[in-house]
Amino acid sequence: MADKTAHKAKTRARILDEAAMAMRARGSDGIGVSELMKRAGLTHGGFYAHFASRDDLVAHAVDRMFQDSAAMVARFLGDAPDGPGLAALIDFYLSEPVMRAADRGCPLPALSGEAARMPAAARARFEAGVAGFQNAIARALMAMGRADAETLAASVLAELVGTMALARSFADPAAGAAMLAAARKALKERLGLAPPFQGAEDLPA
């Protein structure tokens, strides 16, 4: 029984990993159950052993994406968020490697435009993910002594997400990279943080 339960959990996780990648790349409309199950190496009929409906899958896929996002934020801001951690987060988030990895990482640039049209459960999970990211930024700003930390955190998050979404929209990757570089510099200067990084080799592993 324990082996069967573990196998089911592993299979469910594989489906969610595939769904999360598909949603980041093509939005929630990009998830077709048949195609998704095929990519996961499973039969279409097995879907309902794991999810009640397609809407249920979308909601849990949003959760799965924000698990990755929370891990990314924790890597830089963790238990003791501060200015250097926030600077490193900005450098990482607005980097060319992240721009090229649209099917991984933070779901906000990919899904913000369609969140309002998601099923209610998925939208609630999306909003919780936004709040978690924003609160982590606010804690770092509070540690820097900013009295306007909560309001400023909303602005910082919007700039991070909006810049990445626009950078990915360019047909020419060089144009997207230039936008990222300009935003990194301007945002860090606005927050009184360290100068922008010198190159991709300076990004955390």
From TrEMBL:
InterPro entries: Homeodomain-like_sf, HTH_TetR, Tet_transcr_reg_TetR-rel_C_sf. GO terms for molecular function: DNA binding. The keyword Magnesium does not apply. Keywords: DNA-binding, Transcription, Transcription regulation. Residues 32-51 bind DNA. Residues 9-69 form the HTH tetR-type domain. This is HTH tetR-type domain-containing protein. The lineage of its organism: Bacteria, Pseudomonadati, Pseudomonadota, Alphaproteobacteria, Sphingomonadales.
